[in-house]
Amino acid sequence: MSQLPTTDTTRINLQSANAVNYWCQALNCSETRLRNAVLAVGVLPADVRAYLNR
Question: Is residue 25 part of a domain?
């Protein structure tokens, strides 16, 4: 069972370790891939998901 984040789930906050852990788990990716995706397309989860799935 995944943990519910205590942060905003409408944007990916790379400054919060809890948020990074949540998004890595939710998007099934490494922290490096998550950070690179956010740098490439921004902080919106739908954009990051699409980038990671391409």
Answer: yes
**Four-residue CA torsion sign, 25, 27, 30, 34:** negative
What CA–CA distance (Å, rounded) separates 49 from 26? 10
* Each residue's pLDDT expressed in tens, for the chain with a length of 54 residues: 555 546 678 999 999 999 999 999 999 999 999 999 999 999 999 999 999 999
Domain with 32, as residue range(s), is 17-52
| CB proximity list for 49: less than 8 A, separation 6 or greater | 27
Sequence-distant (≥ 6) Cβ neighbours of residue 24 within 8 angstroms:
30, 31, 34
